[in-house]
Amino acid sequence: MSHAHPPVRAPFLAAIAAALVFAVLLPSLAAANRGGHDRHRAHHPAGKYHPPGKHHRHGRHHGDRGKPHGFPGDHGRGHVVNTVTRNLYLGADLTPAIKATSLDEFVTKNGQILREVTANDFPTRAKGLANEILEKQPDLVGLQEVALWRTGPPNIAVLQTGPSATNVRFDYLQELLGQLNKGKTQYEVVVSEPEFDFEAPADENGVAGDGPAAQGIPNAEINGRLTMRDVILARKGAGVDTANPNAGHFANLLPVEILGQKVPVTRGWTSIDAKVRGSHWFRFVNTHLEAFDPATLVPSFRAKQAAELVAPGGPATSSLPVVLLGDLNSDDDTVEPGDRQAYETLIAAGMVERSTNSPLGCCLKSSLLAVGKGGSEADFDHQVDHILTRNPSEITLQSSSVTGLQPVNGFWNSDHAGLFSALRFQSH
Fold first, then answer.
1. 3-class DSSP assignment, residue 382
2. 202-220, pLDDT tens digit by residue?
3. H helices within 120-263, ranges in order?
4. How far is it, in rounded angstroms, from Cα 97 to Cα 137?
5. pLDDT by residue (tens digit) across 358-370?
6. DSSP 3-state assignment of 196?
7. 187 with 141: CB under 8 angstroms?
8. How far is 226 from 212, CA to CA, in rounded Å?
9. Which of 230, 222, 223 is nearest to 198 (CA)?
10. pLDDT above 90 coverage of the chain, percent
11. Is residue 422 pLDDT above 70, yes or no?
């Protein structure tokens, strides 16, 4: 449930080889993927690919007129596609509420969460995030933790019946689009997929006795609802064509216990097929893998989710070249051994890194992002955000950089830094 990242763990199971992890995971997860967790997928046979149905062209592009072998700067060597993965940070640390041992404490900690979200001021952070993206001008953007915060009247029943609050307090997607598209539309949503969705009563104002005592929550004057989303954006007017928007949830979900009730943390992926300025078609997949796993669990939920991505029929398995990016909450050498399982699973499946790890981009240790509230550039001491390909001979790395390593407008843009890669697609 918490989208903070795993604490440093004591080294364990270092002898687990990537191939063994993958061998254990793949057969069962291949079957799970065939069981219908991919809600929209259309598969295509090997060979030359022409996406069926109507394609979406995101505006007109004039930069390659008279340049049949690429666009300016390619010199006939292929086509460059600019990509970004960006975790927006949901706005608060959810851990205190998860660890609450009584209903009163749970309500109090939920109020603390709502106050943190407000203090972390996403409308201001969206300005910095938009500037990061506009400076790099990526053709395709994968976003994680695109939170939608809503409120409603205090109601304990939602813990059983499911979320129902509708009053929008912060819509991170609309705030970011508003900043990206000031003056003219530069980015459009291609896929937006709801993930974890949870609502609970909260004491946001700190006033005792102003809630419904008959429901057992006498201090809760409000309900807070968090809906997480994974989103893909496409640049308008840059020769970006997309087809077959897809999304799905993982079969393997971490159950988090809240007041004795197990709540599965819904996570998943989004994908499109894309062609950029004359490149060949390729599959573009954005994901956010589980952040917390029991330290001794092998395979971890995170690793099982990674295996779902690359299993036969999975979103990152295609007759097309594949680009996979997102917050993997895993790496090969900058995280503790137990947190390496997911990355090792992807590498064992043939994925190859196409992004930089210098400087490192994860993560601020303070849940408050205002300057002076504890965050420091020194906190960025490991990597969890990645851009990879399953087709290294066809997709090479031209350049890569890390963004958002300094606060702007009085805030860090996120607890993560951003990651940019210019990918060169070889000419056929």
1. strand
2. 999 999 999 999 999 999 9
3. 122-136, 158-161, 172-180
4. 38
5. 999 999 999 999 9
6. strand
7. yes
8. 22
9. 223
10. 80
11. yes
The letter for the amino acid at 87 is: N
**Cβ neighbours, 10 Å, residue 92:** 27
Structure tokens at 272: 């499109």
pLDDT digits (tens, 9 = 90+) for 142-177: 999 999 999 999 999 999 999 999 999 999 999 999
Tell me the pairing of strands 352-353 and 255-258. unpaired
Residue 169, SS3? strand
Question: Tokens in use for 125?
Answer: 């952070």
Taking residues 414-428, report their average pLDDT: 93
Whose CA is closest to 305, among 15, 33, 5, 13?
33
Q: Which fold has domain 18-426?
A: Deoxyribonuclease I; Chain A (3.60.10)
Q: Could you report the per-residue pLDDT of 83-97, keeping only the tens digit for each?
A: 999 999 999 999 999
Cα–Cα dist 295/319, whole Å: 36
Q: Residue 85: which of 394, 412, 353, 346 has the closest Cα?
A: 353
Which one-letter amino acid corresponds to residue 227? T
The DSSP H or E segment spanning 343 is helix 341-348
Q: Position 309: which residue type?
A: L
Q: What is the pTM of this model?
A: 0.86
